[in-house]
Prior knowledge:
The protein has 651 residues and is an alpha/beta fold. Helix content is 33%, strand content 13%.
Amino acid sequence: MRYIGSKVTLLEQIKEIIDEKVCGNEKVFLDLFAGTNSVAEYFKSEYEVITNDILYFSYINSKAIIENNDELKFEKLGFNPFDYLNDEENVSKYKGSYYYTENYTPLGDAMYLTVENGKRIDFIRNTIETWYQNEKLSEYEYYYLVSSLIEAIPFVSNITGTYGAFLKHWDKRALNKLIIKPFSVINNNFNNKSYNQNSNILAKEIKSDICYVDIPYNNRQYASNYHLLENIAIHNKPDLKGKTKIFDWSHLKSEYSMKLKAFKSLEDLISNIDTIHLIFSYNDEGIIKYDDLLMLFEKYSIDGNVKVVKIPYRKYKSKLTSEKIELYEYIFYIQKKEFNDLKEEDKFSTKKVSKWQPNKEKYIKSPLNYVGGKYKLLNQIIPLFPSNISTFVDLFSGGANVGINISANKHVFIDMNSKINEMFRYFAEQDSEELITRIQTRINEYELSKTNEQGYKIFREQYNNNPNPLDLYVLISFSYNYQIRFNNNMRFNNPFGKNRSHFSENMKNNLIDFTNRLHNMNYSFQDSYFQDVDLSNLDEDSLVYLDPPYLITTGSYNDGNRGFQNWGIKQEQEMYSLMKNLSERKIKYALRNVITHKNNENFLLKKFISENKVAVNHLNYSYHNSSYNTTRLKSEEILVTNYNTDTFKLL
Ligand SMILES: C[S@@+](CC[C@H](N)C(=O)[O-])C[C@H]1O[C@@H](n2cnc3c(N)ncnc32)[C@H](O)[C@@H]1O
């Protein structure tokens, strides 16, 4: 549906921001101003989704495509409702109310719809209602049918986009026959939920991990612009007024479309939203000014930081200077709440395991918490590995998220970041409980906390004068984004993670699990550039997993490599040589990489794929399983293997 402020064109940008910020444990995505539900539907492949909108037609659509997970069978009805409702003979036999025809067509002095389509709508809407009242339809079947009717109406409406007015002459599209069509529904196996309330009230009652806020931004009220659809969805046949044939919509007025109330309403809303990640979109032509928005988000951000992405959408010529002025769409991101405040028992909705979520019970998470830690897609990568592995080589092991979760006779973790490896070697030698006590002692000695920046700086100085793995871990635990950054003199220089980073319960548990797992593994951590590694001892049951820096992204995790060698074309090609050599020796490998990102393509990798016997496995499963066209895919993650991922035989 064409809808004012629809965000179908911004989905990828919104996802990019979310993917950059999430830690991997987030479950619930809330879309508070869902409209066409396009954003909610997009994220349904990945998260349990809650939607809300003050308009009822948005709500019934959400009931049908978001809350509902099932392919509907219409068993009680016993026949295909679409065939029945689109059948002209049934329309002509219909004897019920003609309320819609009498109001929205020339029979009621209006030209929103032709008389023929008016009659079809009367027949379809009343028949669906009767079926539902006679218990021939389940709740979701009912919403699904009403929603398919609402979706069909704009295609035959005699308007320029909204129902603020109808055209005085028949537009060609209005003369088409109204046909209702089924649509597809994504099943994410979660208890998704739809609401139909004022968001400012709902925000006080529910929690989420990720909340998307897409308020109206100008003075065009949605209720008056879409009144016809709303009226047909609600179906209580009120008296309609004036030339535009509108019902009394005063209760649906949105404060976000009122100049004097918009900002106050927004502040009230933002202050009450209980979430970790808050994403907000707006544009240059909106009632609330950019600077006011920035100030507001700074105020409610956990650390005062606001990420803003500006997307150009329109240019116009200034009347004064005749200069071209660019207008922007904005996406704001703030972190509102601590990641680790999220307790299972506080969760709003019950959790079921989805196909696309890492199963917390199953995988161990690295005790290094940094953004870009590769935990999230484990459940997609691990099934692509053979199950009987003699030696698992994690060639760019970083936080060791992958290797630690693989069962093999022997594990070799290789990374040029000797500091991380040194830390892991140290962890592996400690009793986990004792390790926690030592960490706690250092925290107490330096009075480290989320707010004590001075203490952090003193501790960092102390570490740089006397570097050791225990203190490095403690330092990282309080540093910005938990990142491990060194300057070229190998002095740790990451700033303080104010109001945010600390050695949390989650990190503590991850560290204990991680250490205990190491105790039961035959492992080695080697500090080495991948070019220098000796892989001569591998046999045919070995697997080399490669997760190098990605040539075409500037992922923030690359920051973890500061002070170490950079990644470029030379390194990329040396890596391909290593992979070719493995294939010649009949040793399996799996390369994780990004093949397209925004407008960039990794041509070298494409060439490598076309010239070698490899399988390409697509990782961001959620995109591929949604109803969206894959041509929109902008960041495409893949796992390239030199073996078949079903048979695990070399190609
Ligand atoms: C910009 S649109 C959302 C567009 C949506 N993201 C999409 O892609 O279709 C804003 C929506 O907010 C709804 N709305 C306005 N004020 C509201 C309020 N106070 N509570 C809940 N919904 C409201 C409108 O009905 C409208 O659907």
